[in-house]
Design a protein that fits this description.
Order of helices and strands: EHEEEEEHEEEEHEEEEEHEEE
Structural class: mainly beta
CATH topology of the largest domain: Proliferating Cell Nuclear Antigen
Strand content: over 45%
Largest sheet: 9 strands, antiparallel
Distance between the termini: 54 Å
Number of domains: 2
Radius of gyration: 20 Å
Number of strands: 18
CATH architecture of the largest domain: Box
């Protein structure tokens, strides 16, 4: 028997909204420590790794490990039936071919329940080794989303140049060029508004903006995003939330012209 109850159900809604356009189906691995997901997009350009730790749920029970094949588009449609303030419970029997989703509306005598068919997926787990990165930038996630959105009006790719004094985002297209530079901040009122840079050596890498715009759909999950960069390693993006939800995405770089 598996059952997980999340009072702040909007977190699960935001997770699915961030994933559904990038990957269509994935295996949710359920264990006593929590729920994890790992999948590549259909083009094998980007990798998504999600961890929902058991401590982040208000109640959590998992009698035995389960592997649930989930159509993310279908799950997102069902979760749209839940209000942002609803309590969400996920439930499945040990050998079930369906996942039950229960939505409770606080302060109302209203309970909605849905059953979603599970899929039989043959998924290969990919190891993500610990890496030493040349440059790690932590910045407000909303600012990163805006930069990607703005520069996608200029070109299809962005060059990210990282140095000790700041990080620069540049795009070139038929209408011209665009550049946004963020300097490292020394003092801010709120930690989540800071731009911090840990650099071993400067980097200059190019990435496809359409994938970065997919990644930034995770912005509502976290006030900050961590960008990890090295010359021969995919760009890593990490979104951490206070409710023990950890979403990691990476994208292969494009070749420098």
């Amino acid at each position: 028997m598996f059952e997980a109850r999340l009072v702040q159900g909007s977190i699960l809604k935001k997770v699915l909204e961030a994933l559904k356009d990038l990957i269509t189906e994935a295996c949710w691995d359920v264990s006593s420590s929590g729920i994890s997901l790992q999948s590549m997009d259909s083009s094998h350009v980007s990798l998504v790794q999600l961890t929902l730790r058991s401590d982040g749920f208000d109640s959590y029970r998992c009698d035995r490990n389960l592997a649930m094949g989930v159509n993310l588009s279908s799950m997102s449609k069902i979760l749209k039936c839940a209000g942002n303030e609803d309590i969400i419970t996920l439930r499945a029997e040990d050998n079930a071919d369906t996942l039950a989703l229960v939505f409770e509306t606080p302060n109302q005598e209203k309970v909605s329940d849905y059953e979603m068919k599970l899929m039989d997926l043959d998924v290969e787990q990919l190891g993500i080794p610990e890496q030493e990165y040349s440059c790690v930038v932590k910045m407000p996630s909303g600012e990163f989303a805006r930069i990607c959105r703005d520069l996608s009006q200029i070109g299809d790719a962005v060059m990210i140049s990282c140095a000790k004094d700041g990080v620069k985002f540049s795009a070139t297209g038929e209408l011209g060029t665009g550049n946004v530079k963020l300097s490292q901040t020394s003092s801010v009122d709120k930690e989540e508004e800071a731009v911090t840079i840990e650099m071993n050596e400067p980097v200059q890498l190019i990435f496809a903006l359409n994938y970065l715009n997919f990644f930034t759909k995770a912005t509502p999950l976290s006030k900050t995003v961590t960008l990890s960069m090295s010359a021969d390693i995919p760009l890593g993006e990490l979104f951490d939330t206070p409710k023990d939800c950890r979403l990691y995405m990476d994208e292969e770089r494009l070749s420098l012209p």
